[in-house]
Amino acid sequence: MSNWTFFPIAITFLGFALTLLVTSKPKLQKLVSIGIASCYLSFGLYLLSQGSNILPMSLQVADWRAPFGITLRIDYLSAILLTVTGIVYLCVTVYSNLGDNAESSALYFPLIHIIIAGISGAFSTQDLFNLYVWFEVILLSSFVALGMVQNKSRLSGAFKYIVLNILSSMIFLLAAGLIYNVTHTLNFELLSSHLEQLQASHPSYVLALNITIFIAFAIKAGLFPFFFWLPASYHHISPAISGLFAGLLTKVGLYAMFRVNFMVFPADTYIETIAMALSSLSILIGVAGAIVQTNIRRILSFHIISQVGYIGLAGSFLLSENPVIRSLGFSAALFYMVHHIIVKANLFLVSGLLASYAGSERLAKLGGIMPVKPLLAFLFAVPALSLAGIPPMSGFWAKFTVFKTTLTGDYFLLTFVMVVGGFFTVYSMTKIWLAAFWGKPPEPSPQGVVRVSAIVGCSLLSLSTLVISLHPDLLYGHVQEAVNHLMSGVANGKGF
Amino acid sequence: MIVLVIGILVILGFYFLQQKSYRGIVIGLILLGNGINLSIFVGSEPTVGQYAFLDVGQGTPESNDPLPQALVLTAIVIGFALTGFVIALVKSMMNLNPGSRELVLAEEDADE
Which ipTM score applies to this complex? Predict the structure, then answer.
């Protein structure tokens, strides 16, 4: 079974190669992509259905032993994230129509595959430097995606994205190099025991390394005050690929932060305080930024920052001394992450539907869509209500688990911050709803055509949201199992 | 001595990143990247004149740790690709704003 650990990476590379072979036939490219994405998703679902029977599975690449070779390992946490990645992967490939809601470049589908390859690699590697390499794979392919169409505002956004992300990679590289030089290993399992020993003799050195690598991941995750690249670039790219970016890229940064800062490094109250403070500020600054925006996808971009704050806040309870809070908090973070990936990708894709129909994403140029296109309104309402956290949608359960953690741990200030953040989230979702779906339609009435395949892509994501909403125990069961796996690993001193 | 070089590279790198010109940012990224690569290499404390890797049969004495060198090699290759991409991007941005060497960033809210 262990060779299958490589499957998610291998099949996306296969997709990349196959779609490159047929660059002159966009229809065939799309068909191949859908096939590859379905295989990827079914693999994820199979892993989850087998659960603890086959997880975690690990592979020593080329049979080099652990301190020297690279370890790939899919544990329960990775399996959940790979499955969600698969859902977004499939829906985005179904949704994409070149030249309509996606860039009309023959490189579009190959790029999607390679981005997913990078994400799968980051989710399954157990080696710090290998993680850096996967980050670069994601980064370079997203750069190409950003630069595919050349107009002034898009390239300006791309420039900010690229410079800040290169800076973050450099900080990551520096930290990885320094960590290797003091511990002489890059393997997560060995690192955690070596860092534990180093913590006893040189606590300030470990803290410095921890903060350095934390900053690198915080830039990737879009936490305050490192988020400026995100709302500058996401609304310039096509809806299809922005859905993929919005759903997955910042969450890879968060995942890396959880895995490296919160699990590999010895628990540290200083880092816990920093993570909580930055996450709370992200919640507030994100929604505050969203209020003044008038472009739908820019509003949604600012919401990513505030939602990343919620996930980061829940995740930072991993550093808590109380084991109950630890497991509650991380279950909440994981549940929130899964819910958020699906909902956020869906909102970006649906705003693409609105743009195809009405020809604009500015609130001032939209209006009265509800009576004309009730299906569009419904497709927007499902993720919007869920993001706002209205019961019984998935966002409510996600927020509920985080609130439960903060209240159990007596963190009243954090609870208050989340309530304020939640209130303003509802406010700006209402703003989009009022301006786009109610009110007077603009003159002349829009005549844009919405493709069936695009609607199917969004419906699949909405369906996933509805399943999580009405059956939260289904997801929460898996999440708890994943957290149990991690916690028992920690107890035995050989986790992650 | 080499530590001083790293310091100068990183400081100059950050200095150039502050510049409001295309050329400054490209040079800044290159200098910063090289400073970081050098610091990883030096951090592994390589000794000049030692064996590059151990030959088990010969029972040679201590060798330098080859892994940091492999890491730096990977980082250089990736850094080169990134630099190439940034230069290409800067070139197409300059084509869109002809005659300007200053960094021109469009209004974020511009509707195009």
Answer: 0.89
